[in-house]
Amino acid sequence: MPPPLLTPGNPIHDLASRLRRLPPSCGPVRLIGVDGHAGSGKTTFTGSLAAALGGAPVLHLDDIATHEELFGWTGRLLSGVIEPLGRGETARYAPYDWTARAFGPLTELPAAPVVLLEGVGAGRRALRPWLARLLWMELPHEQAWERGRRRDGGEQSDFWDGWVQAELRHFAEDPTRPFADHVVRQCSEGYEVLPGPSGTPGPDQFVTHREGPSAVC
Q1: How is 90-110 classified by DSSP, letter by letter?
Q2: Global pTM?
């Protein structure tokens, strides 16, 4: 699915403008977390936001997690990515290949003005001190998981059974949504960006209701 058209007045365009103006949170980087249940649309939304930011680098947590460490990747992320970015250096990490069940060759993540961190657990407790903003994709877990299962097909049903239990445990022990600065909802056309539970509306806690005249959430 192509990203929504980026035009003035578009919520993603407005969000990108505000993110650029934030103070850095990780060395020179404004690190933005995009969290939500698996299947909630994080990857598609993050791709649109990265485009609105002029091609901001994106780190997908699917590249950090493994079959054995669905959520046990914090130390590897901090040492391999967060700490180098905090020093203003290019981070290097080996993306995990979910088919080969092995790490691939090293890839680089530059210390750009804005870097997007996308995936389940992007707003976990250990990462929040490094985030300039935390976004939560608002979709109930039953709907998100159903979307994810349809996307991945029946051959992944066993994996999804295990994933659901692991995700439930993760968010029970380390919830993200209560700390989100913004909540993002996908509409019939585009997105709606709302203030999150972590604060009240202010200069950078904004509300954008619709992306187009026919958008309905």
Answers
A1: -EEE--EETTTTEE-S-EEE-
A2: 0.87
Domains of the chain with CATH codes: 11-195 (3.40.50.300)
Rounded CA gap, 211 and 22, in Å?
23
3-class secondary structure, 140: coil
- CA 61 to CA 123: how far, in whole Å? 11
Longest alpha-carbon distance in the chain:
47
Contact indicator for 39, 148 with CB cutoff of 8 Å: yes
Strands lying side by side in the sheet with 131-137: 58-60, 114-118, 30-35, 131-137, 182-186, 191-195
Sign of the alpha-carbon dihedral angle for 19, 23, 29, 34? negative
Q: What is the mean predicted confidence (pLDDT) over 32-57? A: 97
